[in-house]
Amino acid sequence: MNSPLSPLVYFRRNASRALPMGLVIVLAVFLIAGVTVLANAIDLTVRTIYRYTEYFTYVLPQQRFREVPEAQRVLVEADPRVERTMEGAFFLCNIKTVMGRLPFVVLGVPDDDRDYLMQRMGTSLIAGRLPAEGMPEAVLSEPMVENKHLKLGDNVVSPTEQGGMATAAPVPVKLVGILKGPVWVGFTSKSFCSRYFLLNPLCTLYTWKDVGQRDELNRAMMPVKNKAAGKLDPGSVQVLSKENLITEVRESLESLYMIMGVVTAAVIFAITLMSGMLANIYFTQRLSEFGVLAAIGYSRATLIGRVLAETALLNIAGWLVGAGLTALTMRFLGESVFRARGLFLNPFDLDAYAHTIPVPICITLFSVGTIAYRLLKLDPVTIIERR
């Protein structure tokens, strides 16, 4: 026989009463976690698309220069942590994302540097061939080909290119090969870029001997915040590193995250108030039950403990169901809807679920607090006499 104080007794006998409050918790968790997953997807998308910055760093000249000044290149080459420096050119093509069209660099470097970078990134050719020297040809990684809906022989960019930040190409650039690997990347020949894309500056790339030195090396070249404190002159060059990219993205999203914080707080407040009212309504319907338990000798502390156990159990179950529903929904939407539109979702984003933890805590504290106040004032004799 179950103890009358077991929290499971009420749920078994009054499932129809517990269900509405449980659904409110589920929907609150789903709403907050889902919105946070979608917001964090912007950051994840940028980090995924520009993940090549984990393997090499660009040094670009400022607008008054056509190429990186010799004095700046010497400083990069002289650092003992640098494994290799390369001179490159590039053109930009558009990729589609839910934030609009973003520019993506198709890099032109000598063949030996291209092979070195492909090996470093774990990328290999799976279809077609590599670009011929000086020809308007390019190879792109599989995700880029899918994103742009291309096939071998199609134009990567063309003279009629419109929209986004990519400039129209003087001649059509054909897709001649497809790459497979963990990184979005595109290659063409340096001589082709240098000859036709005269408005694009020439760049210097460098890699590091030890991946653990990457951020330290990039900060030594040009810190993200105090750029003048680095080896390189910010008046002559700019450095496109992973840390720099992530910092810029997150700074641009600060307002969005602030709005999300306000919305989350408002949702938590509204849900807490609604759940507390429901809990008190259900408690009023159970006054006779608690009156009898108090009359036969159960202390107020014991009864409050029962309310706490029931509320906590309902909130934990609601949170788990809400989190599971969010993960399944976001996984389905990520694979079937958003990935094709250039947005990457992490359905198991721990940060998103951390935002929902205040929901069960606030509901439990508010509900138990208001009911505990009423229990302390409860007169079991009056309740029994009314029966």
UniProtKB/TrEMBL annotation:
Where does the UniProt annotation locate this protein? Cell membrane
InterPro entries named among the record's database cross-references: ABC3_permease_C, Macrolide_Exporter_MacB
GO molecular function, a single term: transmembrane transporter activity
Q: Name one Pfam family in it.
A: FtsX
The alphabetical list of record keywords is: Cell membrane, Membrane, Transmembrane, Transmembrane helix
Instruction: Write out the transmembrane intervals.
Output: 20-42, 256-278, 316-333, 353-376
Q: Which GO terms describe its cellular component?
A: plasma membrane
Topology relative to the lipid bilayer, per the entry, is: Multi-pass membrane protein
Keyword S-adenosyl-L-methionine appears in the UniProt entry? no
Q: Which residues form the ABC3 transporter permease C-terminal domain?
A: 265-380
Where does the protein principally reside?
membrane
Transmembrane listed as a keyword: yes
Family, per the entry?
Belongs to the ABC-4 integral membrane protein family.
> Which PANTHER family does the annotation name?
ABC TRANSPORTER PERMEASE YTRF, MEMBRANE COMPONENT OF TRANSPORTER-RELATED
This chain's protein is named: ABC3 transporter permease C-terminal domain-containing protein
Source organism of the structure: Armatimonas rosea
